[in-house]
Amino acid sequence: MTRVLVPERTGSVLPVRPGAPPRGVRAGSWALTGAAAAGLLVVGFGPEPLRGPVGLAGVLVGLAALGFGTARVARPGDRAPWQHMCVAGLLFLTGIAIRIIVPETAVSPPTPMAMIPNVVVIPGYLMSAYAFAGLLRRRRADEDDPAWVDAVLVGVASALLAWTYLVQPSIERTGLPLIQLANSFFPVIDVVLVVLVAQLALAGGVRAPTLWLLIVGSASLFGGDFLYSVRDGNLADLPAHYVDALYTAAFLLFGAATLHPSMRTLTEPQQIVVRDLSRARTVVIAVVLLIPIGVMTAEPVGGALDRWVRAVLCSLIVLALLFRVVRSNNSRARAEDAIRRRATHDALTDLPNRELLSETIATWGDRAVADGQEISLLFIDLDRFKMINDHWGHRVGDELLCAVAGRLSANLRGTDLVCRTGGDEFVVVLAGPSARTLAEATAGRVLDLFSRPFLLSVGEVVTSASIGVASAVSGAEALELIRDADTAMYEAKATGRNTYARFDTRMRDDVRDRMTLEQELRGALERGELYPTYQPIVDLSTGELDGYETLMRWRHPTLGLISPLRFVPIAEETGLIVDAGAWLLREAATQLATWRAERGPGDRPLHISVNISVRQLRDRELVAIVRDVLDETGLPPDALWLEITESGVMEDLETALATLDELRGLGVTLAVDDFGTGYSSLSYLNRLPVGIVKLDRSFVSEVGEQGANESIVRAVLAMAGALDLKVVAEGVETDVQRDWLRDQGCDLGQGWLYGKPVPASEIG
Predict the structure, then answer these.
(1) Is 670 within 8 Å of 638 (Cβ atoms)?
(2) Between 177-201 and 209-232, two packed helices, what is the crossing angle to 10 degrees?
(3) How far apart are CA 245 and CA 186, in angstroms?
(4) Which of 140, 390, 402, 752 has the most CB within a 10 Å radius?
(5) Of 501, 372, 370, 366, which Cα lies nearest the Cα of 435?
């Protein structure tokens, strides 16, 4: 099992931390690295007069670099671990100063005076371990990380080895158990330091040079402490300057590590991959377990003190290993719980998802059969959610989804299940003896919840919802119940949005019929079932024919003539309208070219009007198609009228304007169809590059009879005249309507008074 652990931070974005490191620190770091190698050689193998001064100078320079890097290179908010390292360095320097000032504290074999510098040196080692642990905690930021437990295991095993082969033999030779115990502490804590720094390198992210400088420095410190323990324990005759050389190199390497700019990465959280136990780590743990067995077998117990120390250290190894096993098991259990939750809950809102919804409906369905209860489901879809995403971006859209999830969860019963099934769709499941009645009441309450604005980062945002309600008396299939509620939701949208609709079998029949039409429509164009019809448009003042509007019709071999009100919306939703609309445009333009060629030179030039759907308006190929049609037919551009609807333009005004401007640049005439039924805003009409306004038939039906719409028609005619736009009145069916419109100054008329839409073959 592999888990990717992202360190937690406040907010969703890590804070931006400005400020670059001072110039030259990188070069200074590498210079100190070279100085560490030189110091190791000079102090360890150089002339005796140079050893002491060079060693002391190396310690001071390394400590100065440590302080400078902490103050100038580290970011202000990340200085704490480096400050702890500076404190450790000062404590080490204090111990060195004591040994220089009081020579009796540095003699070998040691005397009780050696404990004086250890009073400050031992806290220095503990402070170093605390500093490295702080770096690891900031870099990994994961409580499940077993690195520190492994460090403890290795440290305790090292302590057991140090006791058996360093401390106990030294006590037998010197008789100074306290001093030898203190001396053995140093290499043990060094091992822990090396393990901690190595874990920093394994924490993922960039392998920074600072890490490797710290690792080499810790190894040098370990080497010095090990030789120091061997020398003071009279286990080998080693020169003191070997120990000093390793200490000097360690100080310089720590200074170089702090000075390098990559030290900043050690306090930045990294993405961590915690994998199954690796072979290397398994071997380390196995060796740690075998150490007590090997020590007990190879080295006999020396006495009571030896027995107790070994027992305590072995017990610590067992307890640490047990703690690691328990922690690892708990970590895996938490990981499995997290994976299980991710599989059943929505990542954005943390609501149950479709999978848990299906499981719950199945469980509740079994109970409903036994208890005689009902299950009802509310399918909630946000109205015009795409406009919110397009206007403010997906981040604000996500904010709205979370706000909706919170409001639904806070205002519904605790026994109800609120889910997000995807996109802007939410589902509420209810159960009870009268769930149908409760469902409708809940749907009304949910609509009321949407009447209040949602406070988002961009301010107050108002949206509405369409809700479909479906119920089952017994244990219905989850997918079936969701499907029925989804169907009812579309019914709610079709009736004007911001309402709810209850599912009935008629809707299911409508969906089945719609699917049948959709499948048949997909091949209708290739099979030649679609054909154009033409309805005349007449000049009201003269009665002359001005042109035709082209309308698409569909005659199916078995279903017969299918109304455009049924198949055009399907073509629009599925995108089939793009190819069908391009075909209709070519057919209409070709027919007009034929008619214009047949008419005499003194006859009035005709135009052809073709509807452009919302999908076509969004299609990037539309302008190229219109250009090709004009080139192929040889029509003058102003003879081609392209009709657009108000609602289609307003769905994406900026994109529509860009396309319309390109079309107007070709010279074609643009018309607004069904004017008055949509937004009818003078401000947006003034922005559109249109030349024609087509007045919707609903306003024409009662004119001339002192109908209520006459004042509206007069206002539209006046507005169009002010904007220098022609007006075409649709739905003209009587002489009274024609005469009234002509008297009011309307330019053109279209309707059954002049002719129904018919194929070109029926037009003389």
Answers:
(1) no
(2) 160
(3) 17
(4) 140
(5) 372
Q: What is residue 8's DSSP assignment?
A: P
Which of the residue ranges 47-51, 381-385, 704-708 would you say has the lowest mean pLDDT?
704-708
Q: What is the pLDDT of residues 482-541, one digit of tens each?
A: 888 988 998 888 788 899 998 887 877 777 888 888 899 998 999 999 999 999 999 999
Residue 467 token pair:
């809700």
Q: Which residues pair with 694 in a beta bridge?
A: 728
Q: Distance (Å, rounded) from C-alpha 659 to C-alpha 653?
A: 10
Task: Write down the pLDDT at residue 101.
Answer: 86
Judged on CB neighbours under 10 Å (0-12, 13-18, 19+), 601 is exposed
Task: Tell me the C-alpha to C-alpha distance, in Å, between residue 384 and each of 272, 370, 380, 396, 676.
Answer: 40, 41, 13, 14, 21
pTM for the predicted model, two decimal places = 0.53
Cα dihedral: 477, 483, 485, 486 (round 10) = 160
Task: For residue 417, give the 3-state DSSP assignment.
Answer: strand
Backbone angles phi, psi at 745, to 5 degrees: 95, 15
3-state secondary structure labels for all residues of 43-54: HHHCCHHHHHHH
Please count the CA atoms within 13 angstroms of the CA of 100 that sit on its side-chain side: 11
- Taking residue 724's Cβ as centre, other Cβ atoms within 10 Å add up to 7
Instruction: Please state, in angstroms and as integers, the Cα–Cα distance from residue 295 to each residue in 302, 303, 762, following that order.
Output: 12, 15, 109
If phi > 0 it is left, if psi is from -120 to 50 it is alpha, else beta; for residue 746 that is: beta
Nearest of 710, 711, 749 to residue 729 by alpha carbon: 749
Q: CA nearest 594: which of 630, 635, 628?
A: 635
Instruction: Report how far residue 401's alpha carbon sits from residue 390's, in angstroms, rounded to the nearest whole number.
Output: 15
Closest to 608 in 3D by CA, of 762, 750, 752, 761: 750
Q: What is the pLDDT of residues 81-119, one digit of tens each?
A: 899 989 988 998 888 888 888 877 766 666 677 678 778
1: Cα separation from own chain's centroid: 23
Task: Say which range, 6-20, 196-210, 302-316, 528-542, has the weakest mean pLDDT.
Answer: 6-20
Q: How far apart are CA 540 and CA 125, in angstroms?
A: 102
Q: Before 532, cis peptide (omega within 30)?
A: no
Structure tokens at 162: 């140090």
| pLDDT range class, residue 313, cuts 50, 70, 90 | confident
What is the spatial distance between Cα 511 and Cα 520, in angstroms, rounded to a whole number? 14
3-state secondary structure 184-237: HHHHHHHHHHHHHHHHHHCCCCCCCHHHHHHHHHHHHHHHHHHHHHHHHCCCCC
Residue written as token pair 């499948």: 519
Give how far Cα 12 sits from Cα of 6, 7, 9, 15, 393, Å: 11, 11, 7, 9, 16
Q: pLDDT tens, 622-639? A: 999 999 999 999 999 999
User: Are 375 and 481 in contact, with CB atoms under 8 Å apart?
Assistant: yes
Q: Is 158 left (phi over 0), alpha (psi -120 to 50) or beta?
A: alpha
How high is the pLDDT of residue 223? 79
- HEC assignment per residue over 297-324: HHCCCCCHHHHHHHHHHHHHHHHHHHHH
- Which phi and psi (to 5°) does residue 121 adopt? -70, -45
